[in-house]
Design brief:
Layout (H helix, E strand, L loop, with lengths): L1 H19 L8 H20 L4 H21 L2
Helix pairs in contact: 1-2, 2-3
Length: 75
């Protein structure tokens, strides 16, 4: 049962990230990179910690910082 819950959580998180990328059309490149980094980090954090809320939020925060920093190098 736990495995099913984790797979469902990961699938839901991934789907939400993909759907939310459509909202990036009016954002600057840096904002897009930050948002994408947060989404990818959240999914990665959820997967690595087995669906833990703290892991998901932590992954999102780390991903947002990385996305923001990568955007600085593109200029």
């Amino acid at each position: 049962m736990t495995s099913f819950f984790h797979k469902t959580t990961a699938l839901t998180a991934t789907s939400l990230v993909l759907l939310s990328l459509g909202a990036c059309s009016g954002m600057s490149g840096r904002q897009q990179d930050t948002a994408v980094g947060a989404g990818v980090g959240a999914v990665g954090g959820a997967i690595l910690t087995g669906g833990s809320g703290i892991g998901t939020v932590g992954g999102a925060a780390v991903g947002a910082v990385i996305g923001n920093e990568i955007s600085k190098d593109k200029r």
